[in-house]
Each structure stands twice: as structure tokens, then as C-alpha cells.
UniProtKB/TrEMBL annotation:
GO molecular function, one term: ligase activity
AMP-binding enzyme C-terminal domain span: 424-499
Gene3D superfamilies: 3.30.300.30, N-terminal domain of ligase-like (3.40.50.12780)
Protein name in the entry: Acyl-CoA synthetase (AMP-forming)/AMP-acid ligase II
Pfam families: AMP-binding (PF00501), AMP-binding_C (PF13193)
Keyword Ligase: yes
Length: 514
């Protein structure tokens, strides 16, 4: 299926149903189809051929998201550009992708102005919401389209997405329609949906350029509504859940912690929620248990990566509970079970597949896995060694088939001759009631080889003696895994999608004498 086919499927159920909702404005399926068709026609009139790449640079916005369906209907390839990137990074991505068209919001005009002259392949610039002297206005762009267009992309390519790479040059991940279809089918079969003929209502607060965007496709093919929040606002998030009777939503753990800390949470009506996805980073078991109690038995995990989008493993709300209805605490640190349309294994460094309980790299096969890295055969071959896609995550499968991710391969710390996985230490730190978030890294040490070092961010209004915290952790996981050094920071550095940047933390700590 093309990306626009999910919209068309929803429209076939009821063209007059609300499709995109934002700030009191509602666009029906028929209206989104019409605008998407006009975008496709305008792209073709501006020389876009099937297989050409078209970028969108925008915050969460219904019109910008509608352009995705126009790009797809024109047979072109959607290249989402993260609006939180610096200008140089976006220039590098646009050059890597070879985009011929960039559609952008006026708020990013200074960024685009700074880079577009260095991108000769970028033939067409379109501003969505203002007049910019060196770009085509939105209505003028749409007016160029005169003939209906409905084309398919060669080789089934749907998207090219930049890796989040916090180190080195980004890579372009080539995702096909089959990859997205596999992700969508897995989502539909693995999580709860309205069973009474009702339509899902999905709240998109997280960026539509990332997980929040691709999770729209299963909602659309069921004829559901996408409620778009233009900017992150936890209070507004809770308002939207109540007002729109939201059934599905996604947030990374950092934002879920903010929801849990919001003073009005316990007085809100969240009874419409059926599936509250969390993912993109490890979640504190302590705070997940709190969410299951205070938000409701609706938390649902997903684990994936750009190269195998979203659904390598899944954990439905029901998997968070035992047969007697009590919280299954032993599972809360898992990433669920391998999803139905993926083969998953644990691999040793020499390519051997390991048994249950043995730790190694998580590798996967199947139609969820990307076609490869754009114009980078060497990197594609490296990540596909031994015929499996290598995730870079270390983990194991327990006897019940649940996947436990213990660390990124590069984040394992060897201290005093012992392998310590930072995620286990971070879970112990997060169990302390004063800790809002944390990161554990290894620093060079003459005695230990690597010195286990923790940086913690405290909950608002909390105070904590580092010695108290180390005693707390030692009682839970022992002295070997207890940080030798603890620093309290007001905030942790994060990537554009909210992941804690351990590389930056390590660099800052190395600049500070012990």
C-alpha cells in the first residue's frame, strides 16, 4: 500500500467523518483527500516524477501532514525533516536525500534561507503559511496543478528517514510501502481497538516527523480521527484526552513522567483511553507501575528503530498484568514479545544464535526491516551481517518469550572486570522517589578501568544526598553495579526526540575534575 491508500481506505468507510482535527478546526476525509490530490497535481506540474524525493519541514500541522498524502499520490517519496535540527544538520540531510522540493512553515524560513542556496538540486521551495520572497506561496503552488495525478513510486519506496545518529554522519533509511504495511498490520493485530464499530481517536502531541506520524496510518485505515497538537503542553494534552474522548496516543517516557507529575492528573477523566503507547527510550519500571495505577490499565509498549519501524516487539496493555489481574512487575522492564511478523533472535559476536536467557545482540528478519541505507552499500552490508538486521541493542529472551533489552552495545560498561549494563543501574536509580530521570556512563579510571558514573535529575522540589542515593542503589543491585560517582544536574541534555544524550554527558563529565 502507498501512504495515501490508508487515507483512501478511511474515506471509503465514511468520507464525511473527521480525519484531521486541530485547534477547533476539522477536516473530513473527503477534504483531506481533495487537498492531498491538489498537492499531488501541483508537484507533478512542478516537475516531480515518480521516485523523486520531497521534504517537509514543519511542526505538527494538519496541512503539512496532508502533504504526505499528496507526495504519495504523486508517486514521490516523503522525506520528513526534523524541525528541531540545526540548520547545518538539515542541510546535510537534504543533500543526502537529494530532495528536489522542500515544503516548509514560515517559522523555519530563516533556517531554509540559510541553507537552500547550497542545495542546487532543491528546485522548488514552498512556504505553507506566509509570503517569502524566495519561495512559492501555498495558494500559488496549488494553483499550478491542473490535471489529476495518481501514480505509484518505483520499487515501492515510501519514505527516506534520517537516522537519529548522535555520532557521525546521518544515514538515510529507505522504507518501503511493504515496511509500513507490515508495521500497520502488526499495530492492528497487537493492540486493542474499538470493538463496537466505533472509530479510534488518536492524539498526536509527539512530533509527526517521528513515531507519532507513522502511528497515524493504522488509525486512518480504520476511519479514525487524528487530533493534532501543534506544540507540547502536558496540561493541554490532558484537556485534549477529555475533550476529544481520545482512545489512542503515544508519548516518550520523558513526557509521560511530566504527565504523572501534573497536579491535575488525578482529577481528569481518562476513561476513553484504550491504548497509551510508550517507547523511543527505556521507561522507569517504578514510573510505569505508577502510570498503570493512575492513568489506567492502558499502557502499551512498542520497540523498534528507524530501520525496522516501531514494531520489532510489542507489549499490549493486558501483558502488563498477571492472570489474577495484579501488575506483572517482572515483565515491566521487558520490551514485550517479538511481534507476529518479525523473526527475532539473540546473536553472539561470531554470528551464533544464542538460547533463552543468553545475552547478545538483538537481530531481526522480515518485511518490517528497511530496504537499506540510501546510497550506502557498505553500511547496509555491515548492519546486515550473517543475514540478519543488527539493532545494536543487547538483550535476551526469557522462558516466556519476553524480550529484555539490557543496553545499547556501545553503552555497556566494563568496570573491575565485570560487564555492567547501564539500563539496570538506571532502573535502580529511578526507583528512588526523588529521581525524575538519570543516565549512567563509564569514565576512564586507573583502578576500575571504567568508573561507573551516574547523573541524576531530581523531581521538582526534591533534595537528595548522593551518598544516600548510592546506598539506595547498593541495597538493590549490589556494590559492583553501584555508581562510584553521582552528580546532580538541573537538566539532562537530550536529542531532538527527547532521548538522553550520553555522549554529551560523558564529554561534560570528562571536562570536570573528579
Amino acid at each position: 500500500m502507498r501512504l495515501t491508500d490508508y487515507l483512501d481506505k478511511g474515506a471509503s468507510l465514511d468520507p464525511g467523518a473527521p480525519s484531521l482535527v486541530c485547534a477547533g478546526e476539522v477536516a473530513t476525509y473527503a477534504e483531506v483527500q481533495d487537498l492531498g490530490g491538489r498537492v499531488a497535481s501541483a508537484l507533478a506540474a512542478n516537475g516531480v516524477e515518480p521516485g523523486d524525493r520531497v521534504a517537509i519541514l514543519s511542526a505538527n500541522d494538519p496541512t503539512a501532514f496532508t502533504c504526505v498524502f499528496g507526495i504519495s499520490r504523486a508517486g514521490a517519496v516523503w522525506c520528513p525533516i526534523n524541525p528541531r535540527n540545526e540548520a547545518a544538520e538539515n542541510r546535510e540531510l537534504l543533500e543526502l536525500f537529494g530532495c528536489s522540493v522542500l515544503i516548509f512553515q514560515a517559522s523555519f524560513a530563516p533556517l531554509v534561507d540559510a541553507i537552500h542556496t547550497a542545495l542546487p538540486q532543491l528546485r522548488t521551495l514552498v512556504c505553507l503559511d506566509a509570503d517569502v520572497p524566495w519561495a512559492t506561496g501555498w495558494e500559488a503552488f496549488l494553483a499550478t496543478g491542473t490535471e489529476p495525478v495518481d501514480r505509484h513510486c518505483p520499487d515501492d519506496v515510501a519514505m527516506v528517514v534520517g537516522t537519529g545518529g548522535t555520532t557521525g554522519r546521518p544515514k538515510g533509511v529507505v522504507l518501503t510501502g511493504t515496511n509500513i504495511e507490515t508495521m500497520t498490520a502488526t499495530t492492528l493485530m497487537s493492540y486493542p481497538w474499538p470493538s463496537d464499530g466505533g472509530r479510534p481517536v488518536y492524539l498526536a502531541l509527539a512530533p509527526l516527523t517521528h513515531a507519532a506520524g507513522v502511528l497515524c496510518f493504522p488509525v486512518l485505515c480504520r476511519g479514525g480521527s487524528i487530533v493534532v497538537m501543534r506544540a507540547p503542553d502536558v496540561g493541554g494534552f490532558l484537556d485534549h484526552v477529555e475533550q476529544h474522548r481520545v482512545t489512542h496516543t503515544f508519548l516518550p517516557p520523558t513526557l509521560i513522567y511530566m504527565v504523572l507529575d501534573h497536579p491535575s492528573l488525578d482529577g481528569r477523566d481518562l476513561s476513553s483511553l484504550q491504548c497509551f503507547w510508550y517507547g523511543a527510550a527505556p521507561m522507569s519500571v517504578t514510573r510505569l507501575e505508577e502510570a498503570l495505577t493512575r492513568i489506567g490499565p492502558v499502557m502499551a509498549q512498542l520497540f523498534g528503530q528507524t530501520e525496522a519501524p516501531m514494531m520489532i516487539s510489542t507489549m499490549a496493555p493486558s501483558d502488563h498484568f498477571g492472570p489474577d489481574g495484579s501488575i506483572a512487575r517482572g515483565r515491566l522492564s521487558s520490551a514485550g514479545r517479538p511481534s507476529p511478523l518479525v523473526r527475532l533472535a539473540i546473536m553472539a559476536d561470531d554470528g551464533r544464535l544464542l538460547g533463552r536467557g543468553e545475552r547478545g545482540e538483538i537481530v531481526v528478519r522480515g518485511s518490517l526491516v528497511m530496504r537499506g541505507y540510501l546510497d550506502n552499500e557498505a553500511a547496509t552490508a555491515e548492519v546486515s551481517a550473517h543475514g540478519w538486521h543488527h539493532t545494536g541493542d543487547i538483550g535476551y529472551l526469557d522462558d516466556d518469550g519476553f524480550l529484555f533489552i539490557v543496553d545499547r552495545a556501545k553503552d555497556m560498561i566494563i568496570t573491575g572486570g565485570f560487564n555492567v549494563y547501564s539500563s539496570e543501574v538506571e532502573q535502580a536509580l529511578m526507583a528512588h522517589p526523588a529521581v525524575a530521570d538519570c543516565a549512567v556512563v563509564g569514565l576512564p579510571d586507573d583502578k576500575w578501568g571504567e568508573r561507573l558514573t551516574a547523573v541524576v535529575q531530581l523531581r521538582r522540589g526534591s533534595e537528595l544526598d548522593p551518598a544516600e542515593l548510592t546506598s539506595f542503589v547498593k541495597a538493590r543491585i549490589g556494590s559492583v553495579k553501584t555508581p562510584k560517582q553521582v552528580a546532580v544536574w538541573a537538566d539532562l541534555p537530550r536529542s531532538k526526540i527527547g532521548k538522553v544524550l550520553k555522549t554529551e554527558i560523558r564529554e561534560q563529565l570528562l571536562d570536570v575534575p573528579v
